């Protein structure tokens, strides 16, 4: 039987001295150790975390480093991560810091993410830079002004309201509104498909609250689109005649066009047919 105890070494005799064997006490001690087996092994020293330093490190002299993820097709989590360390990060089909030449629906120079100081820290803003097909942010709630385009499932729509024509204004925060008390009951705005086809889908909004979803789910407006949930979103008319769209908890969500939007953490936006996730650690 092999023992895990260290081997016994007998001191060598000095030069000219006769070698001496182990004493009887040493032999009895070795036998007792052999029968008892190996002794307790030393345990590694573990340094525990103190409750006083459980806060993760955060930079104080430089900006944080957000992570932009190009989500894989069909995934909400996996994708290619890019760390943003510059004040401006440009995205396009053939120009910019990130180029996606395989997506024909993306403009050559499509959008920029800009970092600016804000309240003693930093904020990041997504800007459309004149793209042809627009920049879209995934929203929980949004007001659909006259120029807004919304993606529901695989289609794009906009609300056409003849009582709220698009009026150019200097301040983008201003809106052209009409109080609902002056809205004739016989006039209805229209949810119209934003398409180059000669016969786009048009749905009159005949109630102050309209639900939208996939065919067979019982929504007020049903569309034959597998990318829609049975109850996908709700349109509600506001007092000034505008329409508020509210997204339900669906897989594919509601996407609204934007010229500029502050990026929170986490959030999602869409350029062409590429979906991005933005996270500030």
Write up what this structure looks like.
The protein has 281 residues and is mainly beta. The protein is built from one helix and 20 strands. It has one helix at 24-36, and strands at residues 67-71, 79-83, 88-92, 98-99, 111-118, 121-128, 135-139, 141-144, 150-152, 155-160, 190-193, 202-204, 209-214, 221-223, 233-237, 243-247, 254-258, 260-262, 267-271, 274-279. It has a ten-stranded antiparallel sheet with strand order 2-1-20-19-7-17-9-10-11-12, with no helix packed on it. A hairpin with a 2-residue loop joins strand 19 (267-271) and strand 20. The chain is elongated, with a radius of gyration of 34 Å. It starts with 23 loop residues before the first helix and ends with a strand.
Kindly list the characteristics that best describe this protein.
281 residues, mainly beta, ten-stranded antiparallel sheet, five-stranded mixed sheet, 20 strands, 5% helix
What share of the residues lie within helices? under 10%
Largest sheet strand order? 2-1-20-19-7-17-9-10-11-12
**3D shape:** elongated
Query: What portion of the residues fall into strands of 2 or more residues?
Result: 25-35%
Return the structural class: mainly beta
Ends: how far apart?
Answer: 57 Å
What series of H and E elements makes up the topology?
Answer: HEEEEEEEEEEEEEEEEEEEE
Describe this structure in a few short sentences:
This protein has 281 residues and is mainly beta. Helices cover 5% and strands 34% of the residues.
SSE layout and pairing:
Layout: H1 24-36, E1 67-71, E2 79-83, E3 88-92, E4 98-99, E5 111-118, E6 121-128, E7 135-139, E8 141-144, E9 150-152, E10 155-160, E11 190-193, E12 202-204, E13 209-214, E14 221-223, E15 233-237, E16 243-247, E17 254-258, E18 260-262, E19 267-271, E20 274-279
Parallel strand pairs: 3-4, 13-14
Antiparallel strand pairs: 1-2, 1-20, 3-5, 5-6, 6-18, 7-17, 7-19, 8-16, 9-10, 9-17, 10-11, 11-12, 13-15, 15-16, 19-20
